[in-house]
């Protein structure tokens, strides 16, 4: 074995061997109980980030543990086509390469370009995840737009439509003018604006003004005066189709049925004040009716049959009557131009600060427009009720959400659900399986104008047949809806589609419902709830039994990770290590503006002055999983990862030690004679049992941080720090320890074998490397070929020995007490071996301590150790420490080197501390209200008081011993 652990050397070859050996592949015909999990499909555009690493680390820990625990484990990898994100990336590439837009090359050629890009780059992130050691079943890898998944999407749409759960309607949507599509709420960020504010908007050279309420007047027909309206988006007045007046506003109610005249196109605008259109929350006054609604206005009612025309596009404003002074003008330039024109016409009535929330697209940073557009919707009411009940209704509960606090958020979302807009005006994605039928005798020929002319079908042939049935005998033409479906629709089907639904496959019969869904809490509604609704509606059952929501990762200071702050952590840079220079280089290759780049570089210098050391995948995984106890956020400190990298070296050295002690011809035992084992061997097996139970229980309850603590504590503080040190005297060559040496070898092998298997789900690479080096058991008990297909450790009842553990607790307390004395010595006096003593409070404790003088001398690095009577003269030349109520410890000093006065001062200080605690406790127990305290607490207080009194007695005796000096 190499003298030092090297992550790169250990991790370079195991993964290909695991994969080629078929260890990751599930068997649909297996009789083992199934355990299924799907990897939340990362975007095809993506590169590995720290959030992916957290997901991979947690899920692979679960998967490897379940596989070793005897389950038929299926972990399905997949990739999401990421409609908007991918389209944006490819559009930018085409523009960069050929200075053309997607409209220049056409839809068919553009889609070909996206597929080409996907085939060239689409597997990047999954290949990166291999570097983390994830044991995914790559034989079942899927893509949300491959043939089987596309079939599932079409089938789902058709079935939901046939069940009258999908319909088409005109509604208000979030419209992105850069992407020219409706976007979902999750893709909209909101900026709170308090007053007049200038903001940079994509496509505009100068900042745009927001937070202003502009008032202007419409002249009334027949010289009846004017009516004043106010809006935060004055440019939308070009498409105004009417004016509504609050029915209680006496200034204007007499104008009901009259008309205003549009100042720029002469259109007659009807004035209504019958109360149908006005929501009282907007107060009295007049508000304009416009196709592109102002969020500060109201939703237009349809009973007035007012004209709805979308006038806002990225290219500019288009007037509904054809021809306009402002035609072709970008919307925010039109905002300025319209105000100027209103001023020139004498219709401008001023502006004032207006507090508002501005919607901004998270992908393009463009200001989102609220617009009325026809879209496809899913009616979620009944499905949401069912999805809520299976989580919160004990009579039909099928899903557990972990941590429990997110159940309240689940309730909040589903009790206030709105119908789901599932269509997008993109070219990349699943084409909506709906065709519009234009009849030869239709009066209006515009696409989509008649709501009852749509047919939904699985393919064009089926659509033709359905249209013939509906419009029998009539001549018509069919055109498929150019829109595609929201990416969340296909990803919402993921637990179904990855298992072969809608076909009745062996995988679907064996592995659905899946066992657990693990993901970030930020998409609890947008993905998790939709999977539950669609799974129950289409799959006949919930898609998973548990939902585990991991925290969001922030930097060590608690800040959200941002390229502009320079605190983004690339997991591959943690695994492989990276210099500060290369961290800067990554920033410079991004798209930060010069000012942001300066801030980001400074942030990197502060956080990573020496770059990031090579940590390896195992250390990164263990750190991430151990962090999961931190509420809903993880403040990731890279130094903690570095610490686990150093811990891997400790594991490495433990195995190297074992190799030298076991010898070349060592044969592991088939069983152990527990009665004949030395004390330290009995103890390490007993605490190993506890570590196994704690780890298993913690994993079962998804308390991953507790599981990490249980494994780490046993390896670090019990095996390495105590057991391996305690058995070293057995290997010093003295024949008197031959039996102990043999027992220690066997116990050491059992501990390493079990300990590595216990740790494997968390740290797969280093455990495989070290486990393969352990000697093999012969015969039918021979090891499996890989640790990952070996059995996960289970407790051995016979190993548990509470008496032995209690004795070792006394030993460890005594050793720590002696080490504490040594730590106070000058640096040049700490290393030498010296005699040490203990004075015990009771004979029983004294007998236990005497029986372990060898272990104490070894662990405390003493030349000798002895239990003395409390009046022994040798104690007067010793440094003293009161360990607890059971004993005090003494470390002998060279003649004349003891500073007795300093030792007495320490004891007086300790005595004062104990007396203060005693007095506080006695005052509490003597209070008149103490009788109301529950008896278990009173009993505990009695024990505390007794402990303090015993410690006080030991301190006083130690003081007397020093007085003799």
From TrEMBL:
PROSITE patterns: AA_TRNA_LIGASE_I. Residues 682-825 form the Methionyl/Valyl/Leucyl/Isoleucyl-tRNA synthetase anticodon-binding domain. It comes from the Eukaryota. It holds the Pfam family Anticodon_1. Keywords: Aminoacyl-tRNA synthetase, ATP-binding, Coiled coil, Ligase, Nucleotide-binding, Protein biosynthesis. It catalyses: tRNA(Val) + L-valine + ATP = L-valyl-tRNA(Val) + AMP + diphosphate. GO terms for molecular function: aminoacyl-tRNA deacylase activity; ATP binding; valine-tRNA ligase activity. Signal peptide: none annotated. Residues 14-636 form the Aminoacyl-tRNA synthetase class Ia domain. It is an enzyme of class 6 (ligase). Residues 897-965 form a coiled coil. One of its GO terms (biological process) is post-embryonic development. Its EC number is 6.1.1.9. HAMAP family: Val_tRNA_synth_type1 (MF_02004). Belongs to the class-I aminoacyl-tRNA synthetase family. This is valine--tRNA ligase. It comes from Papaver nudicaule (Iceland poppy).
